[in-house]
Amino acid sequence: MLEDACYNNKALEGPSIFYRLFHSGSRGAGAYLQQSMGERQGTPRTGRHRARLVCRTGRSAHDRTDSVRVDVDQNGTGTSKESFAYLAPSVKSIYPDKGSRAGGTKVTIHGEHLDIGSQIRVKVNKTEECNITEKTDQMIKCIMPPTLEADAEPVTVCVEFEDHSCQDMELSTTYIYEKNPTISSIHPTKSFLSGGRTITVKGQGFDLVQSVTMHVLEIGQTNCTVLSPSTITCLSPESSQSQETSVQFVLNGVPYTGDSPSSSDDRPEEEDGEPQKEHFQLGYVEDPQFFTANKEKQIKHHSGEPLTLIINQKVPSELELVPEEYSVMIGSYPCNISFHNDQLFHCTINGQLSSSESELPVTVQVGNFRHMITKVQLGGSELAIVVSIVVCCVLLLLCTVALVVYCTKSRRAERYWQKTLLQMEEMESQIREEIRKGFAELQTDMTDLTKELNRSQGIPFLEYKQFVTRTFFPKMCSDYEKSLVQPTYENDSFGPRALPETHPLLQDWQANNTTRPNVEEGITLFSTLLNNKHFLITFVHALEQQKDFAVRDRCSLASLLTIALHGKLEYYTSIMKDLLVDLIDASASKNPKLMLRRTESVVEKMLTNWMSICMYSYLKETVGEPFFLLLCAIKQQINKGSIDVLTGKARYTLNEEWLLRENIEAKPQNINVSFQGCGMDSLSVRVMNTDTICQVKEKIIESFYKNLPFSQWPRAEDVDLEWFNSGSNSKLLQDLDNTSVMEDGRKKLNTVFHYQVPEGASLAMSMKDKKEKTLERVKDLDTEKYVHLVLPHDELMETKKSHRHSHRKKVLPEIYLTRLLSTKGTLQKFLDDLFLAILSIPPDRPPLAVKYFFDFLEEQADKRGITDPDTLHIWKTNSLPLRFWVNILKNPQFVFDIDKTDHMDACLSVIAQAFIDACSISDLQLGKDSPTNKLLYAKEIPEYKKKVQCYYKQIQEMPPLSEQEMNAHLAEESRKYRNEFNTNLALTEIYKYAKRYRNQVINALEANPTARRTQLHHKFEQVIALVEDNIYECCSEA
What we know:
Low-confidence stretches: 1-23, 29-49, 261-275, 483-501, 794-811, 1030-1038
Shape: elongated
Protein name: Plexin-D1
Transmembrane segments: 383-406
Helix content: 25-40%
Keywords: Membrane, Transmembrane, Transmembrane helix
Domain IPT/TIG: 88-178, 180-259
Pfam families: Plexin_cytopl (PF08337), Plexin_RBD (PF20170), TIG (PF01833)
């Protein structure tokens, strides 16, 4: 019976209690002893000793504290000095709240007033008892019993006070029994006799394990460490002899017997059906042996040097030691180990060894085995001091020498810098002087040229039909342009003759007499079909859908359509707008900013031709003069310096690739020239003494024929030049003759300086007899055999030049890039005048076509909800500046009857690039590695951009142009140039495309409801039937 009693060691001789052991109890207890505590009374129980009275307390409804009073018959009443308290215990938590079914888990129950009363028990599942090991007022520690329950349902853990069973929920909590931990294997299975080797235990459920002990049979035991739920590590104990023994593990104080809590018969098995192991085998072998390579007892080592030891080992193969188990110490310094094979390893220390002792032991340790194999004797400190002093002296000497060399080179660099700075200042002054003089001379020359120009006849404008054919068919016209500079001469005339126009589209169309009716009827019917909007749009789309209809074919078809419909520009414009709407629809769904960027479709080439037709009058009347003056200025500026006739490089240019990067000393001089049979007096011509004879001839021809179109000039190869040096003696001047000299294995072309022609010399030019054999042009000569001023790629050949060229001043080639600025400064005014003419709106001649087309683009953008201003800017730029003006700037031969040399073409490319950058909306990201073609006009580009924006704004602010006004303007343009072209030939060339893609066109017409309703496919087949076998064989390609 549980007793909750008050004890007194003395007899009750008076009405008092001298000693009480317990001072508190549970409120739920009962009592046998009659006593007075408040309103509670108890029934006394007789004891065996007079000095001891055992009583049992009654129940209390609430917490309270009071003294104990004992009433004794005839002896009075006794009252305790200590107080007795009624308290309510409670359980708050248990930790851990789970453990293995084998028991042994140490748990801690936390709560309040847990150490009251005389008897306390912890019951598990109301049957088993948890063995209490420690208790306080706030907690109880106990060891959980095992369970045979197979399931993992929570069990009740309850704290019982006295003999009362646990019914209050505040005194209970829950605990879960989980599956026992299982051990699957141990590794390694061998240890050396000294022990201390790490044995790794693998298994499952180790998170339930609080303590592990490894028992090695007949040897000893060691405590282990739980690393993870699946890994435990143990150190093997020391053994006195080699043997094979077994190992058993104790988990949480319970011997491991597989997955069962005890050695019962119903031990569970693994999934594969094999029983769990209870014991594992561990073998002991001899300790490993270590020694140095030569088994030295001492090794000498000098401080400051790296130390490497070679250590041999003799290890039983069964141990299977890994590098991580080795440890080598030299004194207190760890040594880095690197293994090379099973017999030896290297031990290295890169740092400095320092110690108060002269010797440091070298110790190898594996587990508990520790063995000193040798000692390292430290020495050589005196030698190190001597070496350090010597090194310091050498370094000091080297620093002194380096300082002297630095000072010497610094003084030389300073002198070189001063010299370079002086050269730069001289060059800057020279450039300023060149720009000033060049601009003054050019202004004088251009003023004279302007005075000579007749505003209507002085500028050699091409006729409208020539402008159109060259713009529409640039590839085909290249051969035609060559024929224009190949004049023919009669036997009795030395003057030039103009060639008649020979372009196929400018000739009369003549069909064979036998097939004239059918062919002419078929072409006429085909023309009628092309004037049907449904047919023409379907025809164009059908051809563009063919994969073999290349970009060249599309451009050719567009130009032929423009010629065929030139008499009906209103209809042509309507067709172009319908096709553009289709193009805009296709581009808007992808990237609208890319529209009109290139000329890859029929309608894009049609737009180019339409702009050329509509802008021709504006080009001729407004832009023509400043453009022609710029061309003349470029040519005169280039001719003011030396020009290599073979490489084309010149002293003055805008293009870096065509810059003569060498200081060629050239002097200008005047010569008096008469041209026999020209009917003009002798002229004074300005030439350079570095000019070849061919260059001199070209300058003389330009002086005599400057008022005639270039197509009427004779070639330099067709004239002879004679010099009358003294009296009646004359000498024929040629680029190559028997007086030519050799230079660097190449024959040098003869120059004015070579012939020593003096200032003011008299020369005579005459036409060659056409029967004489004409030499090839000088510029076409092989640069591997001939040279003029510089060798090709002369920057690579500079080191190979002989000492006879040492009189030339060689400097860095890039220093001559400043000549680009000189040329740019001289031409700047003429370029500004040209850009102003292009980007301005004359009040008397507003560009109606530009206004009409820009309004069309804005209308199409509004219909498609395109509000981005950059997109509209790009559309306008792609349709006018980049499509028309850039083409004109790069190809002045489309507008003027002039000679566009390769060098002039290079300069115009730089100007065109500046115009393109001015029209772009993106900012130029320029740096030191940017091409000079972009850097040259980088400063002016922002101003040009403002002009472009202002031009677009002025166009937008012009009064809207109605369809009637635009049609009247187009009708006037058609009327002005009526019957200029052979439209039948253009129709015939268009028919060739129709014939090639006959089936595709018919299928497209049949698929179109409108075309099918109007029987257009039958009319098209009728055209083919009329012309099929009688097609006019045109000898040219359009």
